[in-house]
Write a structure and sequence with these properties.
homotetramer, 404 residues, conserved putative lor/sdh protein from methanococcus maripaludis s2 fold, Rossmann fold, 3 domains, six-stranded parallel beta sheet
């Protein structure tokens, strides 16, 4: 039997990242064979290496299966031919062999050249047409849209850790609660100051625990001082923040004494009722009813926010988006172009946001529960750096560091 | 100054529950005074006690404030007069002094008699009209609806732990992972067998961790064998269950080997795509494409389920309700009349369901994270009993126990 | 059959604490009967109630069994007769029906009067002789010692929550990480300031996580400023504190940068080696080799400390007590007379200390893991109040609060 | 300035493991330079690669510092000269520049050849003399012993994951509680069956949670059926196991009902007292007083065990070793030659044992708390594989799997 052969190329930090080894192992595991056509090794850490391999298998299907895995890894076909396109058989339904996207930079070979895919996110498909290839959620695919099938003629760039990425290196070495959080605070403070100076977008994803743990004033200060370009949250963050502004409690617990307040269990409902009376948070701020807190500072500074609803919401506030498809779309709009995303004690909103982010956005996840960070990484947001600590004290210390 | 006085009554396990002591302490803390008009002490554990107190304060407002707290506790005014009703000033907005409901049995005094409030749940208001007083979410209140204001002429029955409630007593003594789960399994199995025999409704609230941890076949068996009257879940449970049925993986991890499956990351998207091709889960079962799993058994047995969407959903499946207001309504419909609710590894859906349940529904919460149970209780579902364990092994052991 | 009867008395907050109800329930559960001979109800919260009950059972053994449980609860026999004493049959071995102590205040009836038992702790026995009744560990009992058997003629005072006990009330309402830690810090700071002013003993139990999380300088400041009367720790706390003082690392992690230090894995061994070169920590401080840190401040201020060894110790340092019987004895000596015990991120040393403390010593337990507090309470130290937070940030914030 | 040069060699899975890349990066970070003298790349996964590098730096100290780090990584000097030996200045104290061992296979160059170091463990030093180089704890070094200083002429073999190591591969991909534990159980069962057939040593390290969670009978069955060669535990495991055998409770909780047993808090003290009456556990088994449980099966089967004391022990039992130096020595003796070590819910004994194990012993750590596994790895036992689950159900399922 004459073996079938195809040539693949890769470049970048091939040894550093272990990419080359994984590639060679894949070939051998598949019972196939390879020959190194050329290999240029980078001499320094910043130099890139490049390799060209000829891969051989006994049958075309075996070769095809192996090729699929090599492309996923980050190699690409030297002679891809045009990407395969098939029309979607019906709305929100794609051909069986659709290509599922990752959150890494991706190109498709189209009419003789590699074309970058726009709006990259994980778990989408690539639709070609109009201004060029674009990542889409399957549910947004319309019947007849040309969908990229198989990863043949797809190029998925591996992400190599660059020097800049190492600014948070100390945190990246795993998720341990036995690390000094003061150091983490300092690094985050430096990063925020730098991004503010550079005019970059810093997005904060925040859960209601921020308010319960007394972190509200500190987050409000970050907003007031211009460190935050947008906030992604749920109904509860806003409700408890406004509850704190109006009655000094959060879920009925007095924020000053930590004791249950008299009739405190009514307060979150009263807060919602007060907003409904004015018609919106902005109107309640305008009318002078809400005079402090995160939502107040957001309204005052004109910093945009999205409140996504959830199944467990009381109220919800008039601003809360209860249609999850619309909420996802508004989250994705806000996250677009972010330079840093800081996730504060909310698994739901953090994973939702993580799903939408390209892998090159720096992501910091603060939670008292180490499992949250692990889960985020398990779901593909491998770039997330975890800080296991009390989010209230973290924010207070961060705001202090920035004010000095 | 002549003191103002009002008389309050209470009956039930007043000493056992500590209710009487709390009542007397409230009076003294308020700087007021009391006289015991009559006190009949129950001689045995099952006998009820009853008390009538005359409470005196220096001013009418002080007396009113104190009365509010006594009523919340479970005492009631001997001469309440009719409940106060005020019209809602606008849609989804109630008068400032609205009465916020608890999840305990509640009555209002109306036209000379105590009338039971229907559809009790926590964090609602009481609207009077039509067939009688009824608990409503504020957002469902329409302009002009007569809303109960203040708790004057409201009677909130305390819940006393009865003999039946003690069947799970061993678990109620706190949330500790250092307890033998085998015992808990046996008790839950006995309870399920009893409820099935009695034809009662057992509702299961389940998160996707059920599938990831290999608990899918066991839950499917419980459904097949008729122990489950309804399932409340999210999109992810159904997606990963169907992914398991079609491809043997859950989130891309092979359920048989625990290893990442080849191209496994595409599988949950393929599962969604397969359902879209048929148009619905039921259609895919009908067509013989889905041939096992929780969703398969539900479809076969005609057991109803609700899939609520969330911000982090992929897909979602066509059945998934993405409008959270509708999802809450459908959850509430399903939970109505439940005898036991079993919550399996999902904080979001568990708290959502807990919010809707009257306090007298027995609730069992299984999670590897003790914080989930604590949180549920913090939010008012104090009746929830926690079992801290691996949900996959728990379900397997439970299904084994029921099959013997 | 003529029923047998005995009379029991109790006084204190009988209703508030639920003691009376539990007593009556015990009687009825035992199939016995009671008559209330007298009952005086306290009119206010601070007034005590008192009760005398006649308890009747059909047989003497039944009455005896019931009496045992009533005494455990806090009632006492009106006519106890002298306590039962039996000689220990051999060293470290007591008669089968020995009375096992709790950590509550306890008396025994001896030669016509109630005599207080000295050195109360849980899980000991009571030996009579010499200066009077005294609590002893079973292993310290010598052959022939007169050991109190059964709880007949034992009086175990219930602990009622007093006004003072409520200073930490907000924390006592359960173990939740969703509380504002700032409030807890303020309360602890106030308590420490008050105890210092009063000249009371504050004992700190500290694990090495204090150092790893950057809390070392703050704890050192507390020692320097006179808030700490003694420290109970293990070898690791001292090793990593000295490692920090000498090389700026903790377990090899640079405390300033959070990054692994070059050859950092050797540092804890080098720290131990340095102390061995001088012969002791005090000598190394004296010689000017150790110039900062917790151990430095302890040595400088002459505040006593005990370092208990453990199975996992490196070294250990010359000061570390590796014989656990001696270590327990030295811990108990240090804990004696403490007014407040603060436990910082160490389950082992905290439970060990908790075992030795009478129930009336206020105990605060700080840990990022809520399970530690639960476990402490499960083992009888019910008075422990938990603060779930990052111990490093907690100590920093506490030291700041005290310096203001 | 003429650069100074030295040549280093390495062989093995240099690319796979990332070793070569780390080596080159170290050189460049140090501002030094390198030339690849020779490089042979392994063609298949099982083939080894080998490299010889010439490393150049401007000064001798710079070259020396760099060499230190390369040797730690796993390279070795082509012309090492004899290892440096210095006499210990005093008992338990070594020269400042002592070489601190890792748990990887290690050799020293002595009299012209590489000599293997015996008794490897982490955090020791190497003493030369008598039968050859040997790893010792610093505290066991005597004045005058020749101690290896600096890592010059030390060869530390990197550990490459081999095919066999992959038997537990699925678990190695991180610590997540969202994995099917059934799969893990099956793999562990297969491994235990294989080791038993091969006559290898399987050591179990077990905490008292094994008993509290109802895992006692299953562990007893494993012992009875010959799967266990030795048990490392503490006093509490034995106490609660015997408490279960004698009174059916564990820490006073009835193992059959999960409810607190009457006078149950005395039971662990009674268990200890019963053993003291007989003089030893073996004598109590012999006398027929203890008739079931883990300790019973160990005594019956003659399987050795070590009970190490701790600061928090009640009793302790006569067998418990309360001197930690002796306990560590006995643990180390037991662990020697182990093929698999299974750690069951005990951080203290697991870390202690992990410290003593060479890196090539397969280690499985079962705990409901993922932090325990993380901590074990943080402390150098990187080979530990974690299974996050309920240990009681795990053992039951494992014993079932082995009996089928």
């Amino acid at each position: 039997m004459r073996p079938r052969a195809r040539r693949f190329t890769a470049s970048g930090h091939l040894i550093d990242s272990g990419l080359l080894t994984r590639a060679l192992n894949l070939v051998l595991e598949a019972g196939a064979d390879y020959e190194v056509v050329s290999f240029v090794m980078g001499r320094t850490r910043t130099d890139e290496s490049s390799v060209e391999l000829e891969v051989r298998a006994d049958t075309e299907p075996a070769l095809e299966a192996l090729a699929t895995r090599l492309v996923d890894l980050g190699l690409w076909d030297r002679a891809p031919g045009d990407v395969q396109l098939k029309p979607a058989p019906r709305d929100s339904c794609v051909p069986d062999d659709f290509y599922a996207t990752t959150n890494r930079p991706t190109e498709v070979f189209l009419e003789g050249s590699w074309r970058e895919v726009a709006d990259m996110r994980m778990d989408g498909v690539i639709v070609v047409g109009g201004p060029g290839p674009r990542c889409r959620l399957i549910r947004d695919v319309r019947r007849g849209d040309p969908v990229v099938c198989t990863n043949r003629a797809v190029r998925i760039h591996p992400l190599f850790r660059d020097a800049e990425g190492e600014e948070f290196g100390f945190m990246a070495s795993g998720v341990s609660s036995e690390r000094s959080v003061s150091v983490a605070v300092r690094r985050v403070a430096e990063a925020l100051a730098r991004e503010k100076a550079a005019g970059s977008r810093v997005i904060v994803v925040a859960g209601p625990v921020v308010i319960h743990t007394g972190g509200g004033p500190a987050l409000a200060a970050l907003v007031r001082d211009g460190y935050v370009s947008g906030v992604l949250a749920g109904n509860a963050l806003a409700v408890h923040d406004i509850e704190g502004a109006l009655y000094g409690t959060s879920l009925g617990i007095d924020l000053a004494t930590g004791l249950p307040a008299r009739e405190g269990h009514r307060n979150h409902l009263r807060a919602i009722n007060a907003v409904f009376r004015h018609g919106s948070i902005a109107a309640a701020v305008e009318a002078g009813e809400i005079r402090s807190g995160v939502m107040y500072e957001l309204a005052r500074a004109g910093v945009p926010y999205v409140l996504a609803g959830s199944l467990r919401d009381d109220g919800p506030l008039p601003e809360t988006e209860m249609d999850m498809l619309k909420a996802q779309a508004r989250y994705a709009d806000m996250a677009r172009g972010a330079s840093i995303v800081i996730m504060l004690s909310t698994m739901l909103h953090s994973i939702a946001t993580g799903n939408m982010l390209p892998a090159w956005v720096r992501t910091i996840c603060v939670d008292i529960n180490p499992a949250v960070v692990t889960k985020l990484a398990d779901r593909g947001s491998g770039q997330a750096i975890g800080i296991v600590t009390d989010v209230g004290l973290f924010l207070r210390t961060l705001a202090d560091a920035l004010q000095r």
